[in-house]
Amino acid sequence: MPCRNSETLKAIRRGEWTEQRVVDFFEQKEKALNEAYANSTLPYSPDEQKIKKLLLECLEHHFGSLSGAYIEPDRYRNALVEIQDVCAKLQLHKE
């Protein structure tokens, strides 16, 4: 995939830009990026549950029912396994 600014980058590499011009260019880009961030209506982080749901819907649309392919993990069982791991580590330190 070609870079959108390939000619600009080539000119910089050839020494056609002064150091100050490069600094000014990137300060302008940084300012534009900060403005875009400040004015963005996008959420701070992705909604992982919606993404997982969409992924499963796409997979089911393509492959058919996935009811037996994905099992929601049992959070209580996982918590007990984690507690057992911590206890085992503590036991090793006592010995």
Features:
95 residues, 4 helices, mainly alpha
Can you lay out the helices and strands and say which pair or pack?
Blueprint: H1 6-13, H2 19-39, H3 48-63, H4 75-94
Short account of what is shown:
The protein starts with 5 loop residues before the first helix and ends with a helix. It has helices at 6-13, 19-39, 48-63, 75-94.
Question: What does this entry look like structurally?
Answer:
The chain is elongated. The mean pLDDT is 87. The chain has a domain of 66 residues. The longest helix is centred in the first third of the chain and has 21 residues. With 95 residues, it is an all-alpha fold.
**Approximate shape:** elongated
What portion of residues belong to β-strands? under 5%
Cα distance spanning the termini: 58 Å
Major sheet characteristics: none
Mean pLDDT: 87
Number of helices: 4
* CA-based gyration radius: 26 Å
Question: How many distinct beta strands?
Answer: 0
Low-confidence segments, given as residue ranges, are none
Helix content: 55-70%
Category from helices, strands and their pairing: mainly alpha
Helix-strand sequence = HHHH
